[in-house]
Design goal:
The complex is a heterodimer of chains A (209) and B (256). With 209 residues, chain A is mainly α. Chain A contains 10 helices and 4 strands, in the order ααβαββααααβααα. Chain A has 3 domains: 38 residues; 94 residues; 70 residues, no CATH class. With 256 residues, chain B is of the alpha/beta class. Chain B is 32% helix and 25% strand. Chain B has 10 helices and 10 strands. In chain B, the strands form 2 sheets. Chain B has a 6-stranded mixed β-sheet, with helices on both faces. Chain B has a 4-stranded antiparallel β-sheet with strand order 2-1-4-5, covered by helices on one side. The radius of gyration of chain B is 17 Å and the shape is globular. The chains are: A mainly alpha (209), B alpha/beta (256). At the A-B interface, helix 5 and helix 6 of A face helix 2 and helix 3 of B. Chain B: One of its GO terms (molecular function) is ATP binding. Chain B: Keywords: Amino-acid transport, ATP-binding, Nucleotide-binding, Transport.
């Protein structure tokens, strides 16, 4: 609905797109604040998810496996959708040259509404997984993650799904190792990685040149 | 004299069939700038109609305006149906095939995917014709279209338009930047295509125009200033010099 009402008018106008969507995000968070307050709600999952499994000497909480599995399933589903379906083909072509797709007699707006919906659904899955990771939900939960999401997208290369997947693993592993072995400098290491990637490959690891 | 000339009552070639595409008083703009001032043109129900003029007179813009790819006003009718207010995808669905100036193949998609994307619902898909005309496209089906040569990309672009049962094709400079052998190849394909579907052709190579086109419409500064049989126009050295800056079809640069 958001896509139809607001974003659809703004394709080709990227700055306005970002302004509208980020503005809406802030407004939604404020709305939830107003209704339910900002206090976190703690939640507990099934017992199995609360326990840990020993792998190579480390105790790994089981909910992390669910998170990793969920991410892989979502990734595989999106890749299959883009590569194997006509809608996916329309989207890949539309990202490249929107007007030529319409000139072939295809109403691209429908396809892009679907993209927006899938994006929303994927974010929803991400939210559920994240709530288990953090152990609580609050309207402000996403804000720290949002920064990392942006960094991952830029490092992976705008418009590259596989790039984003590779970059997310790269960023997460780098951050954790730096936190553990380099006296908690994980966030700094991620920013340094971002700077290095932007200097060496401005379009990102797998972005189009 | 580059004043606007009234369109002749009867098709210049003398055929009785009503024109498939009629454009009246077309104006078009890109980013607030007027690029087409006043264009009248008719595409005959059969054969090739050439749209001629120097660089930058609005030939490509006229075609884009018919497709609805840029803002336009004025009358555009396809087989008598008003299409001047329809969005691009509706214009295409009604049977207008578009082969853009720079081919605009989807470089990230394979050749086969480019063709499958062009398949329109409610139309039969003439893969036999396409693979007959361009056997190479079958062999290179799994290759990304972006890795093809310019000539091969032009084949993909033409194939996308020929795949469907269109009522008219708008073909914009199909021989641009191609080697002489490929220019011949494209001309051969267009001649073949023109047997089944009428074509509005923008083309700088006057030798190709001479071979293919029956009628010609000439633009100057965003206005249509001449309509008539193509051969007659190209044989008129004064008119071709004045409107195109070359001698029709005998100019060495335009010769194949």
């Amino acid at each position: 609905m958001t896509e139809r009402l607001l974003v659809q008018r703004l394709y080709e106008r990227h700055i306005e797109q970002v302004l509208v969507t980020v503005g809406l995000a802030l407004a939604t968070v404020a709305l939830f604040d107003g209704i339910w307050g900002t206090d976190p709600r703690f939640l507990t999952g099934p017992a199995w998810m609360e326990s840990t499994t020993r792998i190579a000497g480390a105790n790994v909480p089981n909910d992390r496996f669910i998170a990793i599995l969920g991410a892989l399933v979502v990734l595989a589903a999106i890749v299959l959708f883009l590569q194997r379906t006509r809608f996916g083909m329309i989207i890949r072509a539309g990202v490249e040259n929107r007007s030529m797709v319409t000139a072939l007699g295809i109403d691209v707006r429908n396809a892009f509404t679907l993209v927006f919906t899938i994006g929303g659904a994927a974010a929803g899955v991400g939210g559920v997984l994240a709530s288990h990771y953090f152990g609580y939900v609050s309207p402000l939960l996403g804000q720290t993650l949002l920064i990392f999401a942006f960094i991952v997208t830029v490092i992976g290369g705008l418009g590259s799904l596989i790039g984003a997947a590779v970059a997310s693993v790269l960023v997460a592993v780098l951050q954790q190792f730096a936190n553990y072995y380099l006296w908690g400098t994980g966030d700094l290491a991620v920013v340094v990685l971002l700077a290095a990637v932007l200097l060496a490959r401005p379009s990102g690891l797998l972005g189009r040149q | 004299m580059s004043q606007h000339t009234a369109y002749p009552e009867k098709s210049a070639s003398g055929t009785a069939a009503a024109p498939v595409l009629v454009v009246r008083g077309l104006r078009a703009h890109v980013a607030g700038q007027q690029v087409v001032e006043h264009v009248d043109l008719e595409v005959a129900a059969t054969g090739v109609t050439a749209l001629l003029g120097r660089n930058g007179v609005g030939k490509t813009s006229t075609i884009k305006a018919v497709m609805g790819l840029i803002g336009r006003e004025g009358g555009i009718t396809l087989d008598g149906q008003d299409i001047s207010h329809l969005p691009t995808h509706r214009v295409a669905q009604l049977g207008v095939g578009y082969v853009p100036e720079d081919r605009e193949v989807f470089s990230g998609l394979t050749v086969t995917e480019n063709l499958r994307l062009a398949e329109r619902r409610g139309s039969e898909h003439r893969y036999d014709l396409v693979y007959d005309l361009f056997p190479e496209l079958r062999e290179r089906g799994q290759q990304a279209a972006g890795t093809l040569s310019g000539g091969q990309q032009q084949m993909v672009s033409l194939a996308r338009a020929l795949l469907n049962d269109n009522r008219v094709l708008l073909v914009d400079e199909p021989t641009k930047g191609l080697a002489p052998r490929l220019v011949q190849e494209v001309a051969r394909v267009l001649a073949h295509a023109a047997e089944v579907v009428p074509i509005l052709l923008v083309e700088q190579n006057l030798q190709v125009v001479r071979t293919l086109a029956r009628d010609a419409v000439v633009l100057t500064d965003g206005r249509s200033v001449h309509h008539g049989p193509a051969a007659e126009f190209l044989d008129d050295p004064v008119a071709t010099q004045r409107l195109l800056g070359v001698h029709g079809g005998t100019d060495p640069a335009g010769a194949v």
